[in-house]
User: Which sequence fits this backbone?
């Protein structure tokens, strides 16, 4: 069940990041490359076979949480409190999804032993 939930969560996650970019987001932004690298990972992993999807989604959600976790301080510094809180909630969602997938791993391997 965690993989199904992670596949579903991958869709809004992959849409959220490009939707929040504004005109001030330039190509010379140091976060542009990590954001661009992360954005396609969840939707591609979501349609992969389960054997590949679980580790790819786990890595994608952990990477995404790192990428998004650096955004809230910027929002708070610009007095954009709502955006900073939203970024924290999204990062928590990424970590929660990754934790569910990690917790799934030992149970599966123990049942096959």
Assistant:
């Amino acid at each position: 069940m965690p993989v199904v939930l992670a596949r579903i969560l991958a869709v809004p996650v992959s849409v959220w990041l490009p939707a929040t970019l504004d005109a001030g987001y330039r190509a010379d932004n140091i976060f542009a490359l990590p954001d661009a690298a992360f954005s396609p990972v969840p939707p591609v992993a979501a349609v992969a076979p389960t054997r590949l999807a679980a580790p790819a989604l786990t890595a994608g959600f952990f990477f995404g949480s790192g990428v998004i976790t650096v955004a809230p301080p910027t929002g708070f510094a610009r007095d954009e409190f709502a955006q900073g809180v939203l970024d924290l909630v999204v990062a928590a969602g990424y970590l929660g999804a990754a934790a569910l997938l990690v917790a799934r791993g030992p149970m599966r391997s123990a049942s096959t032993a």
Remarks:
- The chain has six helices and no strands.
- The first helix runs from residue 2 to 19.
- The radius of gyration is 15 Å.
